Structure formats: structure tokens, C-alpha cells
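Data availability (excerpt). The following record was deposited with the supplementary files.
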Amino acid sequence: MLEIKQIRNFLVLAEHLHFGKAADAVNLTQPSLSRQLACIEDELGCCLVSRTSRSVELTAAGKEFQRLASGLMVAWQDAVSSTQAVARGLQGELKVGFTSYTAWTILPSISKNFVEQYPSVSMHLQEMLPMELISKLGAGEIDVGVTFQSFEEGLEYRHLHSEPLCIALPTSHALNKHQALTIECLEGTRFIISRRDTSPPLYDSIMQVCNNAGFNPKEFMHADLQQSIINLVAEGLGVAIVPNSMSKFNHDGVSYWPIDQSPQVECGVCWNPSNDNPCLENFLDLYPDIRDLPISDED
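Predicted structure:
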């Protein structure tokens, strides 16, 4: 069986057409180079080089082998480079699941940063519900999830962003006449809210806000996606409490009101620590948990 180094050395000989110069170029003695050539010719069953005391020339078979072997060496080097790049996470693919809410917060910036740092990695983004995302992480169908805070068994979570909640009202709602709006004003109104099994952290935060105000919200309608909730509010079907970043979803039929002393909604990235995709490790290296970052002194 021919070895790569033998083929490489033959190509050097074919380039120089001089045993002494070729041997020096590959750090071999002339007899060693001659033995390697003989091994190749024995393997192929034909003569590749015609030599006299004055010259070295390639035979017709030698020229053909040079042509094909040159392509082989290019392919071999590509294979080596590509394999090493994949092993270092510089090439390959990263499957990212994200919830619709994060498209309004951290997803754009972390995606942009990653593709700028690792342009040869294919980043596949898949929008899904929070609990679907958790399930796919556990099953190994995606590499990383960008979602609400999660402490699912078997998964790791890194906190990247916090924000308060706000009130979303139809612009036609009578409460918009108030100079200021408190949560207590929403008691008895119809709420549009995600089901708890869709996003437990967000649901629990909304319940906390209402319970602190002394009431349980009247869950009139459920919708899984935050954009859907905003659209339903715009149609006058109810009110909602949503993450503050959803106010960027500038709908003509919706007004947004801040909530005093709102609990913070957290989102970040979660992953399965058993996932050995090198691209995942590089991704995580870019985004430390904000709770681990030093607090800068400000004047």
C-alpha cells in the first residue's frame, strides 16, 4: 500500500527531475529516494521514471501518475485541514433553537457575534416553543437553546439578559385614559397569557405580579407566542403582561405601560453538557454568565 509521504516525494522528484535536488528537498539520501520510487513502481506494476547518467525523465505512465497524484495531494491536504478545523470548532454546524421572545432581545446580537467570529460554521436557527426547545436539547436534536431561564435536570443554563415586565393594553381600552396605571387596575379584566407548560418562568412571573397586587388574573385566552399575544391584544380581546422588550413590537393597536417593582424576566442559553460538538464549546466561550462578570465602578 502506497503511503502519502511516498507520493509526496515522487511529486518532488517529478518537479525537479533530478535525484540529488529532490532528495535534498525532502531531506532524504538519494538511495532512500530511489527505494521509495521503486516501491511505488512495484505497487503500480509499471515504470514511472526513465533515467540515464545524464537525465531523468517521466515516462508516459509517470506523467499520468504525476497528474493524478497532484490532485490527490490537494484533496488530502483539504481533508486534513477540514478535519482539523472541525475538531477545533472552526468549521461544521451549530443548531440553535430559540423562542420567539429572544428574537426581540439577545438572539440577534449573539448570532451576529458568533458568525463574525466563526464565519465557516453554519448556524442553523430554529424557532420553537420553550418546552419544545428543552425537549430537543435533551434528545440531542439541537446544540443550544436561546430561551427563558431554565433549570431542567440534565441541562446547563447561562444567564445573559434580564428585563422587567410591562402591561400591554388595546389602544381602545378605557384604562388608557389614566395618567398612571398600576397592576391593581387590571383586576377583573380579561387576560391573554401563555400556558404555564409553554413557559413556566414567564407564567410564574406574571402570576407573581398579579398576586402581589392582591388578585389572580382572569385567564380569558391562551396563546403560546408573545407576538400572537400582542396581536390578540390589538384586536381588543384582552390585556396582557409581557416582557418589556415586546414593546419594540410597535403595533398601532397596542399601548404599553411600565410596571413598578416588576420581577425580572431572565433569558439566556441552555445546553446539554454531554454534547461534544466543538462548535458549541466555542459558542459558549463567547458568552459568559452576566452574573459572573465583574461589576464596574461608576462615578
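Summary of structural features: The chain has three domains: 4-87, 92-161+266-291, 165-263.
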